[in-house]
Amino acid sequence: MSKSEIRRTVLKARQSLTPAAVAGKSALILQKLLVMKEYRQAAALMVYLDFRNEVQTGALVADALDRGKRVAVPVTDVPNRRLIASLLLHYPDDLAPGAWGILEPKPECVRPLEPAALDLVIVPGVAFDLAGNRLGYGGGFYDRFLPCTRPDTVFVSLAFELQIRLDVYPGEHDCPVHYLITEDRLIDTGRAPGRRS
Ligand SMILES: Nc1ncnc2c1ncn2[C@@H]1O[C@H](COP(=O)(O)OP(=O)(O)OP(=O)(O)O)[C@@H](O)[C@H]1O
Ligand SMILES: [Mg+2]
Q1: For 133-176, how does the pLDDT look when each residue is reduced to its tens digit (9 = 90+)?
Q2: Cα of 174 to ligand 1 centre, how many Å?
Q3: Ligand 1 close to Cβ of residue 139 (< 6 A)
């Protein structure tokens, strides 16, 4: 299966999950993230805002704000295919649908945060292998953004089991994640910053 066929197949399968399944599995996935030390200790994190049956992140944003963490959300700079991390102060009031209908901060609420300030990034994706390689939506937005964070910034992806594939054909610019969490398991991809050689 080619990359574009994987994208199509996985997105179709994810789209066919019922709203109850998406909510139930998302809750199981967040339970695992919320007890991780990489989350507990993170003072600043970036969280994607889910759309189209992605693992839901609303409860995560609320929990992180409750704990007094700095929460940034991605803003897409479409012409340059870049992401800006924007500090979120009022959730959900600061947000409105932006590019592709994904929630983003309203223009007057964009407060750029240095990528180097981030301790943790929650990375979305379409399909993943067990080594943390990630197939995204094909824009290269996260592959350009993640290398701008610190060497010790932790990348965690949240995915349903149906998004885990044997091979996602990573290329040179593809940026793998350190942990992958599904409704069934927490996968340490063996790439955690503390163990980078
Ligand atoms: N760091 C980079 N510098 C320059 N070009 C890049 C970089 N990362 C990705 N690209 C380019 O962006 C395009 C899309 O990349 P790719 O197919 O890996 O997207 P993706 O991983 O699915 O998207 P995303 O990162 O937004 O989830 C490719 O043409 C790729 O060469
Ligand atoms: Mg990529």
Answers
A1: 999 999 999 999 999 999 999 999 999 999 999 999 999 999 99
A2: 7
A3: yes
The answer to whether position 146 is within a domain reads yes
What is the rounded CA–CA span in Å between residue 29 and residue 162?
14
**Residue 7 Cα: closest atom of ligand 1:** 22
Domain count, the chain: 1
**What phi and psi, each to the nearest 5 degrees, are found at residue 168?**
-115, 15
Supply the residue whose CA is at minimum distance from atom 4 of ligand 1.
144
| CA-wise closest residue to 59 among 49, 69, 51 | 49
The answer to the question of residue 197 being in a domain is no
The answer to whether the CB of 134 falls within 8 A of the CB of 176 is yes
Q: Classify residue 129 as left (phi > 0), alpha (psi -120 to 50) or beta.
A: beta
**Among 154, 26, 142, which Cα is nearest to 85's?**
142
Q: What's the gap between Cα 184 and its chain centre?
A: 18
Please report, for residues 75, 85, 90, 138, 151, the alpha-carbon distance to residue 112 in angstroms, rounded to integers and kept in the order given: 9, 6, 15, 24, 20
Give the model's pLDDT for residue 197: 44
Q: What's 50's domain CATH number?
A: 3.40.50.10420
Cβ–ligand 1 contact at 137 (below 6 Å): yes
Mean pLDDT in the chain? 96
- Any ligand 1 atom below 6 A from CB of 160: no
CA-173 nearest atom, ligand 1: 8
